[in-house]
User: What shape does this take?
Amino acid sequence: MAAALVLAFALGAHWGARGVPPPVAVTDARGDTFAAAIATVQRYHEASSSSRSGVLRRAPAVDWGAQRPPFKSYPASPHIALPRAVPDDAGSRSLGAMLRGPAAPHPGRALDLAAVGQLLHLTAGVTARRGGLALRAAPSSGALFPAELYLVARRVNGLQPGLYHFDPDQHRLAWLGGLPSGLLAVEADLLMVVSAVFQRTGYKYRDRAYRYVAADLGHLVENARLAGHYVGVHAVLLEQFDETALASLFGLDGVQEGVIAMAAFSRPAAAAPGRPVAQLLPPGSADSAPGASLGVTGEIHAATSAANGGTSARALRADGLVALPPGDAAPMDLARTILQRRSQRRFSEQPVQLQQLASILADMAQAPLLSGALHADLVVNRVAGLRPGVYRYLPTRHALQPVQLGDFAAQARNAALDQDVIGNAAVVLILSADSARALENGARGYRMAFLEAGLMSERWLLGAVARGLGACPVGAFYDDEAAALVKAEKGRWVLHFAALGQAAD
Ligand SMILES: Cc1cc2nc3c(=O)[nH]c(=O)nc-3n(C[C@H](O)[C@H](O)[C@H](O)COP(=O)(O)O)c2cc1C
Assistant: This one.
């Protein structure tokens, strides 16, 4: 305990803030590393919070350098061209069905190269090119796209077992090498390892970058899960894996580019994946040179990694609640929905129907996959049949609980750095996490909470598209004003906003 406090204090001193309060004493029987990692999370969250009066706590400056290239390439590797996803409107693979589980596989068809091409296209593929930007299947803060995707292919027809990197620009795989023996303790036909090149986001968003990266990649891995269902395989998002071992396997330095998330795909007959990756592996051939430390971004990634974090958790009625009508399953083909999704920032004055909102909320409110600490609040501005105000969504009752009634559109716009996308939305979703619950099993829960926010937001966005509405994720907000808007009790962190409305254009 004494050592934990010394380390926690050392971290505080290292972050060198003006007027830093004494470090939070974290007592835990699970040891000093565990406690110090949680202290790092608490300090990081404060250091990356913004408010009109500036950041609450300053971390040492990091030289983020210039903008990084948006794509990573392996020019010396052999490449394999991939097919793209083609919407299948006659089929039964609607968004609604894919939210429930895998599509029935085509008779006799194993996971093959065509399925992998579709899976990658719908996860992180280029879906539009505009103004020199390659926009992707999943949204990304500032269109900076920090994610890189790597595959461990074990049983894919047409693909030699081995390690691959996905190049979204050319929609192809680069061969990185064969499967080392005794490799990974996860039994799956295909593993997807998702890393982030922190500098891509950090050069613009600085110390807030890790939040954006984790939320971005949450959107992306929800696409991966649904796209896995679309190609007829079980898809599992893994909570436990060894970032260091995986970085080493793919030759990443783990600092400039760190492993953030992981998904496993298996044909329905194969054993369910999900056991942790255990073994450490010898370093692979890195093409990203080790670089300078990224300050608090490096510290928060290390603190939320397996070595430090342990495991992660998982019209008013008499009772004051607004009962919502049951949701309608979204009938639009999943591939069409993902391929059509774009961030919508201009909304008409038309209200959203209560049935539409109830359906989108029902899509969003699946059982937690990576963190059970999240809450969803809504700022309702224009929903037919619902009084404007701030409401808490209660997923188990599929009902809304009023937090404060009235017109909060301007307050929401102010909290979101005066962005019109929030001020003019018919409804604003605000996701927050109970910090004690998020961290109850370790610091890793911090990253998992942002990933979970991304999963939920992606379901909100796709649910909107599938019902002809527009939506936009928003990560830029003043933490204190956002918390006041939803009347967050002490210890609740606001993680993410998302707008919804009838598109104006
Ligand atoms: C975590 C996250 C935070 C975002 N924050 C904002 C924001 O504050 N304001 C905004 O207008 N768009 C925001 N976006 C939307 C991105 O700008 C958008 O995804 C990107 O430009 C790519 O365009 P697309 O979504 O149409 O593919 C955010 C997206 C994500 C995933």
